[in-house]
Amino acid sequence: MTSVLDGPRITADMARELALSQKVCIRPLLRRVHDRATDSEAVVALPCGSTREAVCPPCAHKARVLRMQQCQEGWHRTDEPERQPTEQLNEDQPDAEDQGDDDTDRRVRSTRRRQDAPDLPRVPQEDRTIGRVFATPDGRAYRPSMFLTLTMPSYGAVTSSGVPADPAQYNYRRQALDALHFARLVDRFWQNLRRAAGYKVQYFGAVEPQRRLVPHLHAAIRGAIPRATIRQVVAATYLQLWWPLFDRPVYVHRTPVWDGESYVDVDTGEVLPTWDQALDRLAADPDGRPAHVMRFGRQVDMAGIIAPSPDADRAVRYLTKYLTKAVADTHTDPDGEPDPALEAHVDRLHTELRYLPCSERCANWLRYGIQPDAAGPGLQPGRCSSKAHDREHLGLGGRRVLVSRQWSGKRLSEHKADRATVVREALLAAGVVAPETERLAATVTLPDGSPRFVWTDTRPDARTYARVLLQSVAERAAWRAQYEAAKAAKPVDSGPATLPPADPG
């Protein structure tokens, strides 16, 4: 009987649609594998691993489910996570409590708090990361946690669709700068909250754009903190950007050039001041002021969460709702007609972001007559390599998920391994060896100790692409059937009932 894999009528588009329906990667990295033991070759599909739904919905879905597990596993812990060496801690966020001010701040900033910012409350510190236990009058104990949302201030009036009511009066520059440095303001908030709460507050935060494309933070917080304390910390938190002023561009129609050692004015031959020289001038100026000051907006949403509960499950899904979408596409309807006003809003914000400096090493400093830190040849204003300048990211070029170091005590890769272990143990309990544990592994060797499998790149044609996709679909279906049968034969404890099911694919 002829297999469907060999059917002449199966096109690449048909295979792609089938893979989508079965949650199989639609843009796999195809590699040719030579089995030296049998002298045979096969084309193997490796998932692309994209986190964007517009690129690969199945891989983006897997990434979101993994983040859901990470969030839920650390949120309502009743025991302290195991302390790990610094190099093995969570890779998502350098923890705020271990960061001081950077070299630039220490060099030029005033050590006094701003007069227009309230003082921070200070309380004795406890060496714990889990929340307190409370008891009800009837003797029941519970350990509440929190769900927090922080927003940025207004940059001008907007309509119900999130676009400026008067684009000419809208402060695009401030919105762009706030987006570029939003993560730093969030870091400062966690520093301040830990001092005011009296314990090592742990968090799982997701950075998302509001409908007006302004970044805001949704965060799960382990433990309960008085709402008045949080409001006080929000009001007292600010970020001063101690950079050379960049209010007006120096070079608009011409660009400084690299002379082999420095960037110079193409007309006069004058060497542009280096980054260190620009900071020295700022530090020597008694009237020096920060280049930018940013604060959170007044709107602060807080909710107590007790797990397990439907509220906790909904909060986890909401936290990870937009992680698979690009910032510019978060609130657009992929099946609807484009909104010209929204497109114009995105274009105008992107234009502002393109030429603003995102860091000390940003090429855009040349536009303001200053050599970036560690400058080298090839820099051009408007062409900084940071993703923050891209239209897709609109200033949020860093990670969209910010996780504290002692949230779960695991790296994201370890959470992924945990999910694979659940599948493997279920199959082994039913007498089935998970095929991926030995198949084509680099550790499999021949009797002489050399690798059995040799991997090389390949560029398949459309027919090969369709065939490999169909093979992946069939393979996933077989694994799923084995996994479901194994669970029915001998259920395996896969953690809290609210966790997303383990994926055998």
TrEMBL record:
Give the superkingdom in one word.
Bacteria
Ranges of Basic and acidic residues composition bias in the record: 75-85, 104-130
Q: Which InterPro entries match?
A: RepSA
**Region Disordered, residue ranges:** 75-131, 486-505
Q: Where is the composition biased (Acidic residues)?
A: 89-103
Q: What Pfam families does UniProt report for this protein, alphabetically? A: RepSA
The identity of this protein, by name, is Replication initiation protein
- Organism in which the protein naturally occurs: Friedmanniella luteola
